[in-house]
Amino acid sequence: MRVLLAEDDPLLGDGLRAGLRQQGFQVDWVRDGEAAERELRASPYAAAVLDLGLPRLDGFEVLARARAAGCTVPVLVLTARDAVPDRIRGLDGGADDYVVKPVDLFELGARLRALVRRAYGQPLELLRWRDVALDPAAREATQAGEPVALSAREFDLLAVLMRQTGRVLSREQLEGQLYAWGQEVDSNAIEVHVHHLRRKLGAGMIETVRGVGYRVPRE
């Protein structure tokens, strides 16, 4: 799951990025509000963590501009501002969650997963398709109740497709949701991961729509 982190404090930002990566998130980190607004409007993030006290453009303005431009990325505001008027302003201004620093990193991960579930209309954490189940929190996969060993990238790819069952996603769309900045992507990486998933879970798990992309078929 690819997320945007907007935080100008280098020590805190580094710690947040490391903690989220340990939980399986792919994190792009920006350090000012102008970069945050630009990335929110241009990149296919599953969610964003937004500080309010950003240089160049504060978090409230970033949020206002992004929402006015039609950006629907779920946004969690993470800030030291704990006054009730600030919380109200943030939530009424388009934030999906408002958390006061400091925050436990595992709680932050759980809140981000909850935001993404709500964005896709999925009340439960467990993703299911026929006899296949994914647990994004534990990062475990099972088929007919038996554990299935998936690589980190295979797990993330399958989770993206299962969250959008029936929707065809192109290779470019999948790469955009799976890889953070600076990560090398082989030209056939998605095809290789799809091949491995079919071998482990069955050929019917992922359909190829020729010339378009891939999907997990509707049940």
Description:
Helices cover about 40% and strands about 20% of the residues. The chain has about 220 residues and is of the alpha/beta class. It folds into 2 domains: about 1-120, Response regulator (Rossmann fold, 3-Layer(aba) Sandwich); about 125-215, Winged helix-like DNA-binding domain superfamily/Winged helix DNA-binding domain (Arc Repressor Mutant, subunit A, Orthogonal Bundle). It has a 5-stranded parallel beta sheet, with helices on both faces. Strand 8 and strand 9 (about 145-150) form a beta hairpin. The radius of gyration is 18 Å and the shape is elongated. The two termini are about 25 Å apart.
Helix content estimate? 40-55%
For this structure, the CATH topology of the largest domain is Rossmann fold
Give the total of beta strands. Answer: 11
The number of helical runs is 8
- So, the CATH homologous superfamily of the largest domain? Response regulator
What does the secondary structure layout of this molecule look like, with pairings?
Elements (H helix, E strand, L loop, with lengths): L1 E5 L3 H13 L3 E5 L2 H10 L4 E4 L8 H10 L6 E5 L4 H9 L4 E4 L4 H15 L7 E3 L2 E4 L4 E4 L2 E3 L3 H12 L7 H8 L10 H13 L5 E3 L3 E3 L4
Parallel strand pairs: 1-2, 1-3, 3-4, 4-5
Antiparallel strand pairs: 6-7, 7-8, 8-9, 10-11
Helix pairs in contact: 2-3, 6-8
